[in-house]
Design brief:
- By secondary structure, the protein is of the alpha+beta class.
- It has 14 helices and 22 strands.
Length: 465
């Protein structure tokens, strides 16, 4: 039997108004269920779910949002390869559901939609700030007021990590000053929360076992290149007997390895105006990357990007590098070595300007960063949108923000166009071609002093003649 078919399941449904059990084939435009009789002739139209993905959870979650009171429906989950036979058996048992043996069998196959969409019952509740032990933050030189002023308080109270912030850790009479990300965790059974410090590591500790999982060479390569594992894996967390299917990513600011249980992830039907196919949603739910074209930004501009779920951000992230490598990874035969992609190293200093850890993280992720105070070859400052170019293994310095418009790779920004063209690219500007000094930022014409020097030079030449 085909292993792919062997890992698939089918959803059966019994409406209290109907005596017959049906197989689900999808939903209609109004959010209602589309069904067919669970017979061999309709087998190919059954809606199938990979039991190792969360596609079934996504389907039921979306169904619950549209179909508010499915109390008259009873759902059952059965293997695809035995769906027709299982439907016959369950149909007979439903005629006498109170019989203990029948009840046990029905309950083992039963699916409760509300279990998959529990978050729809009540809005998400953040952490009560009065339950946080702020005195422990103050011991690190961080106060509630400073977090609120830096607009980091909401991150903490929404179970997210702050950006990198300076902290001071006292060891005896010595204070250690460093940058770290902070988060909150529950403290005991009293309902209070205490800080967790996420310090910066030199590199991810990929050689160590991670909740029972040993990273393969392919795993390490994927985590280093994209920050994401590229698949879901079974992890055994403390206090849990059964392994949990999880996403794994790297915190790009600290190099921590982050895991997130897949059952806490919901893949949306639509992203930035593009409706995802079932295959695309399946790819995302299994940790893989997909390339999506024609998405619409907040400014109304269309753009394309690689999408992949990131466990650290707890959301789908956008990467604007080339899709070629991702396509090769999906299309290459199993076991075949993938062509190696050139690694674009992000320096700590660029054109005389220090690059902050946040900017480094964005550049590594393929994002565009606007930088001020860059220095051209003649020693003059200029500003630019800086974007990593993974295909050419270099950085592009752009005039416009490429994420908001179709930018041409010309000079950095409008104020620096003439300056960088003359100072760094060896070009000539008619108005300033006789100026021997490096142009300043925004300069397109000679200054008064430079004009005087040009006139004096002309008079001097006239006297010699």
């Amino acid at each position: 039997m085909d292993e792919k078919i062997k890992g698939q399941e089918v959803l059966l449904v019994k409406d209290q108004k109907d005596e017959n059990l049906k197989a689900v084939t999808g939903t209609d435009e109004k959010g209602g269920l589309k069904t067919v009789p669970p017979t061999a002739e309709h087998e190919q139209s059954f809606l199938k779910f990979d039991k190792h993905s969360n596609a079934l959870e996504n389907f039921l979650s979306n169904f619950m949002r549209q179909f508010k009171n499915p109390t008259s429906l009873n759902f059952f989950k059965v293997p695809f390869e035995s769906a027709v036979a299982s439907a016959r058996v369950l149909s007979e048992m439903l005629k006498a559901p109170e019989v203990p043996s029948n009840k046990e069998m029905l309950d083992s196959a039963r699916v409760n939609p509300s279990d998959y969409a529990g978050e729809q019952k009540q809005p998400f509740q953040g952490i009560d700030p009065d339950k946080v032990k702020w005195e422990q933050f103050e011991q690190m030189g961080v106060s509630r007021e400073s977090l609120e002023k830096g607009k980091h308080l909401d991150d903490l109270l929404q179970y997210r990590k702050t950006p990198l912030i300076p902290i001071a850790i006292k060891i005896g009479e010595v204070s250690l000053y460093t940058d770290a990300r902070l988060s909150l965790k529950a403290s005991g059974d009293d309902g209070t929360f205490i800080p967790v410090v996420h310090a910066i590591r030199k590199e991810p500790q990929l050689e160590r076992e991670f909740f029972g999982h040993t990273f393969t060479d392919e795993d390490k390569k994927a985590l280093k290149e994209t920050g994401n594992l590229g698949r879901t894996v079974e992890l055994t967390f403390p206090g849990k007997a059964e392994p949990t299917r999880s996403f794994v990513s790297i915190d790009r600011l600290t190099n921590d390895i982050i895991a997130l249980s897949a059952d806490r992830v919901r893949i949306p039907d639509e992203i930035k105006g593009v409706k995802l196919s079932d295959e695309q949603k399946k790819e995302l739910s299994e940790g893989r990357s997909i390339y999506v074209e024609g998405m619409t930004s907040k400014t109304g501009k269309h753009f394309n990007a690689n999408l992949q779920f990131n466990a650290d951000k707890r959301s789908i992230e956008f990467r604007f590098g080339s899709p070629k490598q991702e396509q090769r990874q999906r299309q290459a035969p199993a076991g075949q070595e993938q062509p190696e992609q050139k690694e674009l190293r992000v320096p700590k200093k660029m054109l005389g300007r220090e690059i902050s850890p946040e900017e480094q993280a964005k550049l590594k992720a393929g994002e565009t960063v606007y930088m001020t105070g860059l220095i051209d070859k003649k020693g003059e400052p200029f500003n630019a949108y800086v974007r990593p170019n993974f295909e050419k293994n270099k950085f592009d310095f752009l005039k416009w923000n490429p994420d908001k418009s179709q930018a041409k790779e010309v000079t950095p920004d409008n104020a620096s166009r003439t300056q960088v063209a003359v100072n760094s690219e060896g070009k000539t500007n008619e108005a300033t071609k006789h100026v021997k000094e490096p142009l300043k930022q925004g300069q397109t014409e000679p200054t008064t002093g430079q004009e005087q020097k040009q006139e004096e030079k002309k008079r001097s030449k006239g006297m010699k003649m």
